[in-house]
Amino acid sequence: MYVTIPELAEYLSMNEAKVKSLVLQGRIRAIHDGEQYLVNKSQFTTHFEQVEKYKLMIQEYLNEPIPEDIDVKDED
Fold first, then answer.
1. CB neighbours (10 Å) of residue 27?
2. How many Å apart are CA 7 and CA 17, to the nearest integer?
3. b/e map of 9-20 (b: 16 or more CB within 10 Å)?
4. Are 38 and 71 within 8 A, CB to CB?
5. Which DSSP symbol is given to 5?
6. Residues with Cβ < 8 Å from 43, sequence gap 6 or more?
7. Tens place of pLDDT per residue across the chain (76 aa)
8. Does an H or E element contain 52, and which?
């Protein structure tokens, strides 16, 4: 599904000028139909899946208890 830059900016929760800049830099793939840039929205699904995966990994790491170290000696 192709969307315009304003629609993509809303979808990504980004500033429209920043999205247009990324399109012009070639960091977001888009086609120009003579009037406006059109972006395939499905190219971001993999990105969002990876972001969710990394959020879960970080949360699991932060929830893991710190193991008790038996070699620690109190030197007071």
1. 9
2. 12
3. beebeeeeeebb
4. no
5. H
6. 28, 29
7. 899 999 999 998 999 999 999 999 999 999 999 999 999 988 888 888 898 999 999 999 999 988 777 776 666 5
8. helix 45-63
